């Protein structure tokens, strides 16, 4: 059994979507970050970086429990555990990992800053609003280019790269982005949103 410590954030939803896609049994332990539950000693013992999501798999690689932190690492762990959502062909696998890292290093951090300065900052910071709004639009442009002529970020295979990126794009309105300006991203987004496992994964923790 996998225990998922999570909240209703894009990073948390990556893992619940993957678990639903893979059909793995899991239980949810909500960590309410609006009440600083990620700083509780019990959770800190799981992740010293006090960030969700975290999984604890009672059936780890050696048959013993394993704790995995960091959403990208969790997706890789689940893909390797099941042999799914990550291509086996070396070139396609490399593509999937590259675009997973693109999400981890660019889409998540930059769109997260856009969320903060556009929605949550206690005062308007014009420089930050302009900087992160422009960067959000640039990243959507990169994704639009990448998706031109291919169904998924890794080409012909739906993978953990798509799962990692989708929950961030699901909040495009938070980022001031109109998907109509990025038609390839919109097509890709609609295709993923229509998957039943994705719909279930997006509801986890609500």
From TrEMBL:
Please report the stretch or stretches of sequence annotated as the GST C-terminal domain. 89-206
What is the source species?
Answer: Aromatoleum diolicum
Q: Which SUPFAM superfamilies match?
A: GST C-terminal domain-like, Thioredoxin-like
Q: Which PANTHER family match?
A: GLUTATHIONE S-TRANSFERASE GSTA, GLUTATHIONE S-TRANSFERASE-RELATED
Can you tell me which residues the record assigns to a coiled coil? none
The record ties this protein, via Pfam families, to: GST_C, GST_N_2
InterPro entries from the xrefs? Glutathione-S-Trfase_C-like, Glutathione-S-Trfase_C_sf, Glutathione_S-Trfase, Glutathione_S-Trfase_N, GST_C, Thioredoxin-like_sf
Q: What is this protein called?
A: Glutathione S-transferase family protein
Q: Which residues form the GST N-terminal domain?
A: 1-86
Q: Which domain of life is it from?
A: Bacteria
């Amino acid at each position: 059994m996998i225990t998922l410590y999570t909240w209703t954030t894009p990073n948390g939803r990556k893992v619940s979507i993957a678990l639903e896609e893979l059909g793995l049994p899991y239980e949810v332990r909500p960590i309410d970050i609006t009440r600083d539950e990620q700083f509780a000693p019990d959770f800190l013992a799981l992740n010293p970086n006090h960030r969700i999501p975290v999984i604890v798999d009672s059936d780890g690689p050696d048959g013993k429990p394993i704790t995995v932190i960091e959403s990208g690492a969790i997706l890789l762990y689940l893909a390797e555990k099941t042999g799914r959502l990550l291509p086996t062909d070396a070139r396609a696998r490399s593509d999937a990992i590259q675009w997973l890292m693109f999400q981890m290093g660019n889409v998540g951090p930059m769109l997260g800053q856009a969320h903060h300065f556009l929605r949550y900052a206690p005062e308007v910071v014009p420089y930050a609003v302009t900087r992160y709004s422009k960067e959000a639009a640039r990243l959507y442009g990169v994704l639009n280019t990448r998706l031109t002529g291919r169904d998924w970020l890794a080409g012909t295979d739906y993978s953990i790269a798509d799962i990692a990126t989708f929950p961030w794009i699901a909040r495009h309105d938070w980022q001031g982005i109109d998907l109509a300006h990025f038609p390839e991203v919109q097509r890709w987004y609609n295709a993923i949103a229509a998957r039943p496992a994705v719909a279930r994964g997006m509801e986890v923790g609500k």
